[in-house]
Structure formats: structure tokens, C-alpha cells
Amino acid sequence: LLQYIDVNIPFLISLTEHYVKPEDMNAMDRILRVNQRMLSRGFPLREGDILGSGSRSVITCLGDSCRWPRSVDGFVYVPYIISPIYDDMDRITVETGMLDISSATCVKFVPRTHEANFLNIQSRTGCWSYLGMIGGSQTVSLQSPGCMWSGVAAHELMHALGFVHEQSRSDRDHHVSILWENIIESKHNFKKYETNNLNTAYDYSSVMHYGRYAFSEDGGPTIIPKPDPYTPIGQRDGPSLTDIHKINILYNCGRYSSY
Fold it and tell me: What is 89-141 written as a DSSP string?
């Protein structure tokens, strides 16, 4: 699976909770808090919540090999099944995360009937996803309780659509400073991807953005925005306007592509 294991996560999480109030946590802060136990046991997650190859990115895949296919009617249907273990409120939370994406894009999450490739949404340990379409039954883990926030669901669903974390963009050094001296040994969690970034502006408000103290070794910040260091980064409400715009560009959504 992966060549990296986040062995220092328990220390990281205790610091995250100490320096970031629960009400101030963005989606990724909450994900890292929930994933503490599995990461401390060596579960092979990249960047805290991505399962799969360390070099895979939907934007760098050959052709459309890891994008969900576009239908002849112009929509991108992503079939899913959802575990019966979830109660009604859990289902509403997950479906809200889906709706936040589907309502403004050509990507439509639909209950699976017979499709070979589909998302299998399960309450496993932690919040995590594969990156892009991998084929067959593709697990998205949204642990209940723990991951039951619509913004967290949207974050993991965007991974399943093929999106990496915002600060992994190739142009991120123009927009944020990474304080390497404050980061735990797993510095690969701040790797950059060589992409064209879909010709979109860097989005501090992306639901895919790390928090200011992500993977901190000693409680100091690990990400500082430029040029204004006080710019808020990340959020927990759901996809930003730019997140939506990027989905529409990647999946050639046509009439949905402006905002």
C-alpha cells in the first residue's frame, strides 16, 4: 500500500486539541482527531486520510483512468451504497455532504443498482477515502460517531472524486509558508503535486485545506498564509465556491462551470 506510516499521530492530536478549540476546528482538524487511534497503530494513510498509492492523483492519471465516467446525458453519476449501521441522522449528514457537491455540479451521487464501480460508504475506524475512482467496491470510511459532519463527508467525497488537499498544490509556496521545523517526522504529509491546478486561484477557504496546526510537533503552527498571516485557512461547512468550480472544471460540467 504505502511506504509511509504516521507514527507520531497521538502526540499530534493531543497538541491539535490543546491549541485548537473544538468550535474552531476545520474539517481536516476533525478528521485528524478521529484518525488518531488507527494512525498510531500503523494504518497506512497518506496525508492523514488518503488510502492508496503515494503518487496517485486524478489530475496526473493517464487519460480518464481515475475519474468517474461522464454519461451521455452530460452528468457524472457516482453510484454508492451506504451501510445500514448508520441511523437516520447519520444518513442525513452523509447525504448533505453529497448534496453540497451535487447541487452545484454535474456530479450526481446515486444509489447503486447494478454498477460495477461504486462508493461503499461504511462506518469503519476513522475518516478516510481513496483518491479518484479505483474500480469495484470503493470504501469511503465515515466513522460514527466521529466523522458525522457534512463538511467531513464532503471532504472525503472530494478525495473520492480525485482531489488532493489544497496545500498540496504545485503553487502553494506562493500562498502559504510551510514551517518545516514545527512538523513531526512525517514531512511527506506536506508534499506538493505537480499539476496545473485547473487554472484556479489558491483557495484558503477550501474544505480540503489543512488547519494551521496540522501535524505540529510542538504545538507551533505548521502553515502560515501569505501575505496576511492572519488569513483563516480551511473550514468545516462544506465545499467552497472554488471547490465547486474545480469539480466542474475537472469533470467538464459545462453550464455548471461558472461561479
Answer: HHHHHHHHHHHHHHTTSSEEEEE-SS-SSEEEEE--SSEEEESS--SSEEEEE
- Average pLDDT value over all residues in the chain: 87
Triad 92, 133, 88: Cα angle to 5°: 10
> What is the C-alpha separation between 139 and 126, in angstroms, rounded?
12
User: Is residue 258 over pLDDT 60?
Assistant: no
d(CA 221, CA 207): 19
12-21, 57-66, 202-211, 246-255: which is most confident = 202-211
Residue 164 is placed in which grid cell? 488532493
9-45+167-225: CATH topology: Collagenase (Catalytic Domain) (3.40.390)
Q: Topology of 76-164+242-256 in CATH? A: Collagenase (Catalytic Domain) (3.40.390)
pLDDT digits (tens, 9 = 90+) for 20-61: 777 789 999 999 999 987 877 778 888 999 998 555 555 555
The residues carrying an active-site annotation are: 156
Domain(s) of CATH 3.40.390.10: residues in the chain: 9-45+167-225, 76-164+242-256
**Peptide bond just before 227 cis, omega within 30 deg:** yes
The whole-number average pLDDT for the span 165-171 is: 95
Quote the cell numbers at residue 98: 453529497
